[in-house]
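Reviewer has doubts. Consider these tokens.
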Amino acid sequence: MTFTVENYYQPGWREHPHTCPACEWHGSSRQMEMELHDEQTEYSCPGCEHPLLIVLHPSLQQLKDAAAQGHAEALEQLAILAAAPRPD
């Protein structure tokens, strides 16, 4: 079964252990194969490529909300956005 993380800034999703139902591999998202898409990132089993995790990318509002709550990664991302050149 594929697990979906709807709140990118929820703590612990990167370290949460997963077990592949296809080959019984066990590990965290940090050990999985990662495929980046526009709206989400998909993580799959490194043993058999079975999809295990989908992480939805945060909206700008979710980023701002997390930064306002002091989330370190959100603060870094907000600083990167603020430093990006703006089209005239």
Notes: The radius of gyration is 15 Å. The mean pLDDT is 95.
